[in-house]
């Protein structure tokens, strides 16, 4: 996989989307309006996707859960995502996490800007990295933090206000590492593979990256997306949805469908790197976020990403005459991700044989 040159960010946006939304309630700047394949005019009614609900209590047992494993395999090879319930994280804890996220985004702008990201970097508070004059911008502000390994955390970007923020996020990162291990083992077992084969490629130096997302009220949800269509460059992604406001959509059978909210569940989707490991059996779904003219929406996505030096390739046992090898061996996959994303292309194209 040829490595592209590192991205060069142009002048960053002068205002956050939250500031734009507060100062102009009737229109949006031209740079946020979707064009062509990024969306065009957006309808306001979409069918709802019946995302399979998977009981992690059953998956965690290496002897039980045959029916649950079959549900998992079927879900990840069709829509590429699941609602993970009984995941070892209480509803009360998830609500605490939602609350500190809400409190952070409600802080005065000068307080939030203490954590602003640096030009050319994603970590910290801000919005889209601008790589081209023609780039369509997302209607969202973000706080992007590396959770693990712990020695990779940049604490100057970790809010000290609200006071509980750091402790809760640290605890959440510990819990998610357990969820990721249970899932990667169950994925392998669902394909009748040795249970550590995906986990071995994922590696013991994997990175967890958190992205808190604020989608402010948008006056033109018919023209503007919260996030452009993309698939994730991770191995897996775990999303804590807003408890009340929907917005996530997945492309299934060439149609955009809405993902419903289950407040106590984590919505987990396959990323490109697991699609590669599974030789295309598990699907990394194309998804986007629509905007809302009445209510803001706050979510927390955590991306589980193999170490850049970790080599990722299809598991040998999944390469057969009937299903020949589809992908090259890749590493540092995420390095090309943002450039492809801002051009509206899928980085997995670069990994195809």
From TrEMBL:
InterPro entries: DIOX_N, IPNS-like_FE2OG_OXY, IPNS-like_sf, Oxoglu/Fe-dep_dioxygenase_dom, Plant_2OG-oxidoreductases. The keyword Metal-binding applies. It holds the Pfam family 2OG-FeII_Oxy. SUPFAM superfamilies: Clavaminate synthase-like. The keyword Metal-binding applies. PROSITE patterns: FE2OG_OXY (PS51471). GO terms for molecular function: metal ion binding; oxidoreductase activity. Keywords: Iron, Metal-binding, Oxidoreductase. Residues 206-306 form the Fe2OG dioxygenase domain. PANTHER family: OXOGLUTARATE/IRON-DEPENDENT DIOXYGENASE. Belongs to the iron/ascorbate-dependent oxidoreductase family. This is 2-oxoglutarate (2OG) and Fe(II)-dependent oxygenase superfamily protein. It comes from Theobroma cacao.
């Amino acid at each position: 996989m040829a490595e592209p040159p590192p991205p060069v960010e142009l002048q960053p946006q002068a205002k956050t989307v939250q500031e734009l939304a507060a100062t102009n309630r009737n229109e949006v700047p031209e740079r946020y309006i979707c064009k062509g394949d990024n969306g065009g005019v957006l309808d306001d009614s979409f069918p709802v996707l019946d995302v399979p609900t998977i009981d992690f209590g059953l998956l965690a047992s290496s002897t039980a859960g045959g029916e649950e494993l079959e549900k998992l395999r079927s879900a990840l090879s069709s829509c590429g995502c699941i609602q993970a319930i009984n995941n070892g994280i209480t509803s009360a804890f998830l609500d605490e996490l939602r609350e500190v996220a809400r409190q952070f985004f409600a802080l005065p702008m000068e307080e939030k800007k203490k954590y602003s990201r640096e030009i050319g970097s994603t970590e910290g508070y801000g919005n889209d990295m601008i790589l081209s004059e023609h780039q369509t911008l997302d209607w969202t502000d973000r706080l992007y933090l590396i959770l693990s390994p712990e020695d990779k955390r940049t604490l100057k970007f970790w809010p000290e206000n609200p006071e509980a923020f750091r402790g809760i996020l640290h605890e959440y990162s510990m819990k998610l590492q357990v969820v990721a291990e249970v899932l990667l083992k169950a994925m392998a077992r669902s394909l009748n593979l040795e249970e550590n084969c995906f986990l071995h490629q994922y590696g013991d130096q994997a990175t967890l990256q958190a992205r808190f997302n604020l989608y402010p009220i948008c006056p033109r949800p018919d023209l503007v997306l919260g996030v452009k269509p993309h698939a994730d460059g991770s191995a897996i992604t775990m999303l804590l949805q807003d408890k009340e406001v929907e917005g996530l959509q997945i492309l299934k059978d060439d149609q955009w469908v809405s993902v419903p909210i289950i407040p106590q569940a984590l919505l987990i989707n396959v990323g490109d790197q697991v699609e590669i490991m599974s030789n295309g059996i598990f699907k990394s779904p194309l998804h986007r976020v629509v905007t809302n003219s009445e209510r803001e929406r706050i979510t927390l996505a955590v991306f589980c990403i193999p170490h850049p030096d970790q080599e990722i390739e299809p598991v040998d046992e999944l390469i057969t005459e009937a299903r020949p090898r589809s992908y090259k061996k890749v590493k540092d996959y995420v390095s090309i991700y943002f450039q492809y994303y801002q051009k509206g292309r899928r980085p997995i194209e670069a990994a195809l044989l």
